[in-house]
Amino acid sequence: MAGVREEGGTGGLIRLVALAAILLGAFAVVRLTPLGDYFTREGALAGIEALRGSSWAPLVFIAVYSTATALAVPGTVLTLAGGALFGTALGTLFNWIGANIGANIAYWMSRKLGRDGVQRLLGHRAAGLDRVTRDHGFKGLLTLRLIPLVPFNALNFGSGLTGISGRSYALATAVGILPGTAVYTFFADSLLQGSQEASREAWIRVLVAGLLLVALSLLPTMYKRFRKVPTGAALLLSVLLPLTACGAEAAAGDPPAVAGSAEGSSEAPPHVDSIPGHAAFSEVLGRVVESGRVDYARLLGDRSGLDAYLRLLGAVPEPVLATASREDRLAFWINAYNACMLKRVLDHYPIESATGLIGRVRGAVAGYPDNSVQQIPDVFTGTHCRIAGVERSQDQIEHEILRPMGEPRIHFVINCAALSCPELGPEAFEGATLHVQLDDAVRAFMADPRHFRVEGGTLTVNKVLDWFGEDFGGRTGVREFFAEHASGDQAATLRNASTRVEFFDYDWTLNDTDA
């Protein structure tokens, strides 16, 4: 009898090696052959164009998705392609169907080819693993599907090596992946269609980032719980969880405060009983702004002036702001936005391609450059800068404070640290000269063919005017706004109601002097 068990065990090891060979072969095909090009952003876009409008598109897409998943090919690009190709509702349905078919094929491949070999390798410990996965596997797998702390494909194949039943696996997968599938599909539909305004894109970022933060906040508690009373899925993948936790936290979290930063300083905040002048910020800008670009390396070498200015703004009491003139408040918050944006970049400089899951997905789909501020996690939605006694984000300053003040010219002076953003000036804004400075900024914008161009019967302007067109009264309002600042033939063209309004593509490359 011992000889029979040994023969069966050897056969199990051979099948386990065969499973590994299949997965390695799929990996090699994707990485080393032209077929892998379809799993890149460019390939996905080409596939979208090829399938768009075809009655066979849903079946072809589901077949490709399920096959890729069954072979452990990462499906993130396909999920995003589904959103772009079919929209949110149908894209979610087709993504979900393809993922479920592929995940169940992967489970049964792993069960048939790998389980016996793993049991032989584990020896007597296999019985304990089977017992806990039979008793607790559904709950553990459902938890890990809902909170994706472990890679999707790892759970597919890992579950097949345990004792969790096929029915429990299929149900936990079908229910657990639905929320994440819907979020990613909605995210892709918004990004790739490019028809939503910046406020909606910001909402999507908040939603996705919020889900990620919830998962990360639960990770330590879940891990401790799994260590104490391990479920089937947790026991099988416990060696993967610490690596996942460290990587996710490092990707999502801001770096610790560095010497000389506002957070890292031990200086007491200054006493402020009135809105300060902004000469200190003008000194900073005059030192590092060159033709609209910023010498971030030089500013990083000595950021003391910027940090001192931000501490000053942080100490201004809100009641002081409330009693100031509209011009003083506008100048204060415009300078606050620009100074906080400089701080945001310095805290991550030099910027490199994002390593977090959401950052990688978003960068790949939208085509953001590696040195773009968009590679910074939650760059506009994350609170990071204390102004008037409150930690604020860039979006809070712009959308909750500046835009409601009803001055559309702010969009020519607040700078998001991208090449396509209206340029950062070498001087801070002051309430006494604010309107002159804003008009000068509009004229400089109209004189720059990268931001403004009137040719024939078409006005082509910066994409910012599309995202925030409602602040000008829509496209008609944008055209009429520029007509008020133009002269001669250009003004006549802009006053003509038949003049079309179009928008330049937006370049998110960092506005660094080295870019």
Radius of gyration: 28 Å
Distance N to C terminus: 72 Å
Write down the overall geometry. Answer: elongated
Share in helix:
55-70%
- What structural class is derived from the secondary structure elements? mainly alpha
Secondary structure elements and pairings:
Elements: H1 2-32, H2 41-51, H3 57-70, H4 76-122, H5 125-146, H6 152-160, H7 166-176, H8 178-193, H9 198-228, H10 232-237, H11 241-252, H12 279-288, E1 289-290, E2 293-294, H13 296-301, H14 304-314, H15 318-322, H16 326-346, H17 357-366, E3 385-387, E4 390-392, H18 394-402, H19 434-446, E5 452-455, E6 458-461, H20 464-467, H21 474-485, H22 488-495, E7 500-503
Parallel strand pairs: 6-7
Antiparallel strand pairs: 1-2, 3-4, 5-6
Helix pairs in contact: 1-4, 2-4, 3-4, 4-6, 4-7, 4-8, 5-7, 8-9, 9-11, 14-16, 16-18, 21-22
Structure report:
By secondary structure, the protein is mainly alpha-helical. The protein contains 22 helices and seven strands. Strands 5-6-7 form a three-stranded mixed β-sheet. A two-stranded antiparallel ribbon has the order 1-2. Strands 3-4 form a two-stranded antiparallel ribbon. A hairpin with a 2-residue loop joins strand 1 and strand 2 (293-294). Helix 2 (41-51) packs across helix 4 and helix 3 packs parallel to helix 4. The radius of gyration is 28 Å and the shape is elongated. Residues 1-8, 192-200 and 226-266 have low confidence and may be disordered.
